C-alpha cells in the first residue's frame, strides 16, 4: 500500500496512526464483540467514547467549565442557520464580518433564516480587496462598525478558500460577544476560548471524518432559542441531552476522539502550533522565493497556516502542474474554482515530510518551466 500526500481541503488527510487503530478496532472494539458503528449510542461503551472525546477536547483547547461542548450533525453549514435561531432573539440584531467565501455564506444564510424576525448586518467586508487581507481591528481603524447592542459578532477565523487566518490576539475590540467559525484551523494552535461566546467547526479538516460538527458555547448564551425551532436544532435541548437527544454520528465522534488522543500524544496544541508554523514557513518561503513564478495574494500577516492558495506564472501551466504533481504522489492541489490556481491544505495530519515533498516538487517544476 502506498499513500499519497493528500492536500485536500476537506474531507482531508487523517493521521495514519489513527486510521490503523480504526482498522484494528473495526470489527471488535475493545472486546465488545462488535465495532463502534454497530453499537448502541446509549450503551456504556459508546457513553465512554463520547465522554472521553469531550474530556480530551476540553483538555486540548482548555475549555472553561462554563462552556458546553456539543457534537452535532449538519456540518458547519447547518450552524450558519442554527446559530441565529439560538443566539439571536426576535427583534435583535447580529453583526457579521465578511473576509472570505465562508463568512459571506454565513451572513447570507443568517439573513435568509432571520428575514422578518431579526436583523443581520454586514459590519465590515474586504470583498472589494478581493478577500486578500483581514479587516483592520485596531482601535483607530474605521473599517468595522459594530452596534454595541448587537446580540453577537460573527467572524470566520480561517477562510479556507482565500487562505486567510485571524489569531485570537487580533480580534475586534468590542464588548459584543464573538462567535467564530473555526472549521479549518481548530486544534492547529492554542486558542483562548474565553474570548468567544461560541466557537463552531465542521470536523472534516482538523478533527475527524465528516458527519459531525462541534459547537462550544458559553452556558449563559443558551436558552434564547426561538420557540418554534426543531428540538434537534436547539442547543439547550442538545446540551441537556449530552448531544444525544437522538442518535448522534457515532462513528465520526469515535474517530474524532482518536484524533484528540493523537493530538495529546503529539504534545498538545502548543506543539502542533510549532509544527504547523514550520510547515507553513517552508511552503510560503518556496512561493516567495520563486521570483513571481508562484504567487500567493494574501497580506503576509494574514496568511493561513492551514490553507495555502497559490497561482502559477501563467494559467497554461496549471494543467501540467496538476498532472505532474499527481504523478509525483501529491494529490488534490487544484485550487477552489472561485480563486483558481492551486491550493495546498496542510492541516495537522499533514506531516512535515509531505510539505517538503511538495516544496521539492515545486522547486523542480519551476526550474524546468520558468
Ligand atoms: N466554514 C468553513 C471555514 C469551511 O471551510 C467550511 C467547509 N469547507 C464550512 C464552513 C462548511 O462546512 P460543512 O461542509 O461541514 O458544512
Automatic annotation (TrEMBL):
Localization, UniProt: Cytoplasm
Cellular component terms per the entry's GO annotation: cytoplasm
UniProt: L-glutamate binding residues: 42
Record-listed E.C. numbers: 2.6.1.52
Residue numbers binding pyridoxal 5'-phosphate: 76-77, 102, 160, 181, 204, 246-247
Acyltransferase recorded as keyword: no
Cofactor binding, note field: Binds 1 pyridoxal phosphate per subunit.
Membrane-spanning intervals of the chain: none
Pathway in which the depicted protein is active: Cofactor biosynthesis; pyridoxine 5'-phosphate biosynthesis; pyridoxine 5'-phosphate from D-erythrose 4-phosphate: step 3/5; Amino-acid biosynthesis; L-serine biosynthesis; L-serine from 3-phospho-D-glycerate: step 2/3
Predominant location category: cytoplasm
Catalytic activity: 4-(phosphooxy)-L-threonine + 2-oxoglutarate = (R)-3-hydroxy-2-oxo-4-phosphooxybutanoate + L-glutamate; O-phospho-L-serine + 2-oxoglutarate = 3-phosphooxypyruvate + L-glutamate
Modified residues (N6-(pyridoxal phosphate)lysine): 205
Role, per record: Catalyzes the reversible conversion of 3-phosphohydroxypyruvate to phosphoserine and of 3-hydroxy-2-oxo-4-phosphonooxybutanoate to phosphohydroxythreonine.
Summary of subunit composition and partner proteins: Homodimer.
Xref: PANTHER family: PHOSPHOSERINE AMINOTRANSFERASE
Name of the molecule in the record: Phosphoserine aminotransferase
Organism: Candidatus Proximibacter danicus
Amino acid at each position: 500500500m502506498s499513500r499519497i500526500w493528500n492536500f485536500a481541503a476537506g474531507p482531508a488527510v487523517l493521521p495514519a496512526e489513527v486510521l490503523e487503530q480504526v482498522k484494528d478496532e473495526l470489527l471488535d472494539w475493545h472486546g465488545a464483540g462488535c465495532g463502534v458503528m454497530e453499537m448502541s449510542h446509549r450503551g456504556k461503551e459508546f457513553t465512554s467514547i463520547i465522554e472521553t472525546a469531550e474530556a480530551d477536547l476540553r483538555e486540548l483547547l482548555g475549555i472553561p467549565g462554563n462552556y458546553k461542548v456539543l457534537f452535532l450533525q449538519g456540518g458547519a453549514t447547518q450552524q450558519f442557520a442554527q446559530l441565529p435561531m439560538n443566539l439571536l432573539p426576535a427583534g435583535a440584531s447580529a453583526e457579521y464580518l465578511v473576509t472570505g467565501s465562508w463568512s459571506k455564506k454565513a451572513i447570507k444564510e443568517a439573513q435568509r433564516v432571520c428575514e422578518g424576525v431579526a436583523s443581520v448586518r454586514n459590519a465590515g467586508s474586504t470583498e472589494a480587496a478581493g478577500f486578500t487581507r483581514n479587516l483592520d481591528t485596531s482601535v483607530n481603524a474605521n473599517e468595522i462598525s459594530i452596534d454595541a447592542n448587537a446580540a453577537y459578532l460573527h467572524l470566520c477565523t480561517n477562510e479556507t478558500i482565500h487562505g486567510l487566518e485571524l489569531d485570537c490576539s487580533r480580534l475586534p475590540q468590542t464588548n459584543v460577544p464573538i462567535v467564530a467559525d473555526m472549521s479549518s484551523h481548530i486544534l492547529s494552535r492554542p486558542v483562548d476560548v474565553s474570548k468567544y461566546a461560541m466557537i463552531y467547526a465542521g470536523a472534516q479538516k482538523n478533527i475527524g471524518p465528516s458527519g459531525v460538527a462541534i459547537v462550544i458555547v458559553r452556558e449563559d448564551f443558551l436558552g434564547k432559542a426561538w420557540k418554534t425551532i426543531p428540538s434537534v436544532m436547539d442547543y439547550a435541548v442538545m446540551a441537556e441531552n449530552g448531544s444525544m437527544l437522538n442518535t448522534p454520528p457515532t462513528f465520526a465522534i469515535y474517530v474524532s476522539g482518536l484524533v484528540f488522543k493523537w493530538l495529546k500524544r503529539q504534545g498538545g496544541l502548543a506543539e502542533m502550533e510549532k509544527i504547523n508554523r514550520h510547515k507553513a514557513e517552508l511552503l510560503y518561503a518556496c512561493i516567495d522565493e520563486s521570483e513571481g513564478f508562484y504567487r500567493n495574494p494574501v497580506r503576509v500577516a494574514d496568511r493561513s497556516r492551514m490553507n495555502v492558495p497559490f497561482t502559477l506564472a501563467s494559467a497554461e501551466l496549471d494543467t501540467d502542474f496538476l498532472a505532474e504533481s499527481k504523478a509525483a504522489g501529491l494529490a488534490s492541489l487544484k485550487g477552489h474554482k472561485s480563486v483558481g490556481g492551486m491550493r495546498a491544505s496542510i492541516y495537522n495530519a499533514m506531516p512535515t515530510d509531505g510539505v517538503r515533498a511538495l516544496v521539492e516538487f515545486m522547486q523542480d517544476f519551476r526550474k524546468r518551466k520558468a
